[in-house]
Amino acid sequence: MSRNTEISTNERTYFIEALKCGLRLDSRRFDEIREPQISLSKTEFGYVELDWGLTKLAVRVSAQIGKPYEDRPFEGLFQINCEISSMAWAHFDNSKNSNEEILIARIIEKAIRRSNSLDLEALCIIAGEKVWNITVDLNFLNFDGNFVDVGCFGAMLALHHFKKPDISIVNGGEDIIVHDIDERQPVPLSILHVPICLTYSFYNPGNKESNLKGEDDDEIYLLDANLIEEQVREGSIVVTLNKNRELIQLSKNGGIPISANVLLDLSFKSMKIVDELTELIKKVISKHEKERYEELNLKMLEVGADR
Amino acid sequence: MTSVNTSLLQKSDGSAELLLGSTKVIASVTGPIEPKARQELPNQASLEILIRPAVGLATTREKLLEDKLRSLLQSIIVRFKYPRQLIQVVVQFLISDSKRTETDLVDYTSNDLNAAINCCYYALIDAGIALKASFVSLSIAVKNGNLTVNPTVYELAQSDSHHVICFNIEKGKANKILLLESQGDIKEDELFAMISKAVEEAEKVHHEQQRKFVKEKVENDYVWKQ
């Protein structure tokens, strides 16, 4: 395998010609995402392995107790680590962060952290003294395009799966006790909304001039591009939405110009997929919860009359 | 309990996922590829080794593990076969069993190191990199003269001493020690007793797991020849 990122002219032409005929190399529709394969850890909270086509990702959420920032005494800490190693692809350098890598990290960070999807105030234990520090580690194992969408989805899935140990405050707010997860049922995080990123890649099969002038709208938009599609694309946009029809982020960094109508059209089209993916997270998590409930016989722990 | 899965990463020449006790690790090998100018060695392959922790970013702990792994792999890979080339090895811990609780201050790295070494063996075989010999690593805890192979982190914490020992295996026999990392109190005669028991164990692992794996792999890879 080589680090060479170029693809041949033949491959490129073949791909564009196929697009003109309405075909993608993996026979998906233009607005179809690859099927995510999810495996949630049964033994620990917040560890998720995700296969999205050939793109592979392992996500881990962890919690520690730390001190809040002085100017924000009521807010917990939340960070997302998103370093891409050469395991994913030899093209990614281990010693320095490429622009591509930084861009991926920024977009995911903007979608999740800066959109306030995690309730930081719920992470406060003692104001100004002790707060939970939640860390999401995104470990990309294999690269076949679209790290942004996969990373964002994986992070949200893992945040839903994660539970932090229960705590009690003793000595009138002086000390805290962290209860072992075997001793007391751990508590899930409070998630305010579920941002979903969708990346569209653009291709211009016609000539450059007509695209610039905006004469004809024959540009092609592909959702969830794989590696070859990403390498051939002439521009891309990340649309981040949630189920409440809130637009969280539109990120277009260069590439060919697109018309405003297309932008609206893409955002509308995205809603259906956002609903599907949000539903998928909910479904997988509740199935997992149910299995765990039955496996551990948690029913036995429910004391008192059910009201 | 050990389970191995290989060739699961399409963008690497070789990859292996190893579940050993409660440690889960994935390793990828890419090479021989073109090195950066500063990595290039005129008469042999250079190695780039990266270890990534399960939680957080790599620290000095991972650098230390990298260094131990490098010294081992350097002596086992036939580096003169790939002059002016680079072999990249990335080890990513997925589930780590190095601390008893998350707030534990003592970090027992021996299970991690052991899993990383064994995982690298399968990944290197998967990538088709020439090796001088096979190697088997064992994590051993000694308590009152009794040996526990592949101990849990609790067993490590209660042991008198614990060791990671890696053997060079040629013709099915362990003939050299490639690496020995020991921690705790142990007398010389106890150490020798531990090593001789470890030899049996390592040969067993080689015959029961590694050979079986290589045989199956060659059979599957050369299925077109039949």
Automatic annotation (TrEMBL), chain A:
**UniProt keyword Cytoplasm present:** yes
**Ranges for domain Exoribonuclease phosphorolytic:** 34-165, 194-263
Identify the keywords attached in UniProt to this record, alphabetized: Cytoplasm, Nucleus, RNA-binding
To which species is this protein native?
A: Scheffersomyces stipitis (strain ATCC 58785 / CBS 6054 / NBRC 10063 / NRRL Y-11545) (Yeast)
MF terms (GO), sorted A to Z:
mRNA 3'-UTR AU-rich region binding
SUPFAM superfamilies, sorted: Ribonuclease PH domain 2-like, Ribosomal protein S5 domain 2-like
Q: Give its localization.
A: Cytoplasm; Nucleus
Lineage runs:
Eukaryota, Fungi, Dikarya, Ascomycota, Saccharomycotina
Q: Which family does it belong to?
A: Belongs to the RNase PH family.
Name of this chain's protein: Uncharacterized protein
Pfam assignment, any one: RNase_PH
Gene Ontology annotations for the cellular component aspect, listed alphabetically: cytoplasmic exosome (RNase complex); nuclear exosome (RNase complex); nucleolus
From TrEMBL, chain B:
| Molecular function GO labels | exonuclease activity; RNA binding
One Pfam assignment: RNase_PH
Keyword annotations from UniProtKB, A to Z = Exonuclease, Exosome, Hydrolase, Nuclease, Nucleus, rRNA processing
- Please state every residue range assigned to the domain named Exoribonuclease phosphorolytic: 3-129, 136-200
InterPro entries found in the cross-reference section: ExoRNase_PH_dom1, ExoRNase_PH_dom2, ExoRNase_PH_dom2_sf, PNPase/RNase_PH_dom_sf, Ribosomal_Su5_D2-typ_SF, RNase_PH
**Among its keywords, does the record have Nuclease?**
yes
Q: What is this protein called?
A: Exosome complex exonuclease RRP46 (Ribosomal RNA processing protein 46)
- Record organism: Scheffersomyces stipitis (strain ATCC 58785 / CBS 6054 / NBRC 10063 / NRRL Y-11545)
Q: What taxonomic lineage is listed for the species of origin?
A: Eukaryota, Fungi, Dikarya, Ascomycota, Saccharomycotina
GN (gene name): RRP46
